[in-house]
Design brief:
The protein is an alpha/beta fold. Helices cover about 50% and strands about 15% of the residues. The strands form two sheets. It has a four-stranded mixed beta sheet with strand order 1-7-6-5.
Amino acid sequence: KNIALAGPVRAALWLGPPMAFWVRLTRPILVVTNGLANLLLRLVGVQVKDEIGGAYTADELSDLFSESAAEGLLDREEQSRLQAALQVEQTTAADLMIAMAELVTATERTTVREFEALVASSGFSRFPILKDNRLVGYVHAKDILEIDATDETRADLEQPIPASWYRAMVAVAPTDTVVEVVGALQGTRTHLCQVLDGDRTVGVIALDDVLRSVVGGTGRH
C-alpha cells in the first residue's frame, strides 16, 4: 500500500503484470483443488453451495453504486472510480486509444523551437513523431525544455529534433486488454504506445489514459 501511494504509476507498471500472470498461472491449481474439495463433500453427503451464486453481478454492483450515490453515501468521484473499475476487464486498447485524427504530433522536420511552441500551445508533454505516415517514436517535452538557450545552443533550436532524442513506442493490438497494454509499457519503460491494426497505426495510448480508465480523472498528457 505504501509503495503504491508513494509512486502509483511505477507501482502499476511493476506490480500489475506479475499479479495478472500469477493469477493465470495458479488458476488450474485452484480449479483442481476446488473440484477435489467438492467431490469429498458430496461423498460425505454435504450439498455443495455455489459461492458465485451469492455474489453480485457487475450490473448489480453498478446499480448499487448509483443508488449509494443518490442517497449521498458515495460522492460522484467515488462513484465514477468504482464504475470505471467494473469495466476494466472489458476495456481494450481500442477503447483507450487516441485516434490518429485527434492526435497532436510532430514530424521529423519539426525544429526544437517549433516543438517548444507546440508544447506551449497544446499543454501536452509527449508528442509522437510522424514520418512517412508512420509513427517512429515520441519526444518528451522535458528533453527539449532542458536545453540552455546559450549562444552555443541557440543555433540548434532552429534545427530539426535529432532522431537520437526519439523515445521508442511499443506496439499493441486494438484487442489487447488493459493488463496487456500495461505489460507492454512496463516492458519498455515508456509512457506511450501505438495501436497497430495489421500494419496500420490507428491510435496511441498514454499510460495516463490507462490509469485514468481505472481511477478516473480528466486531461491528457
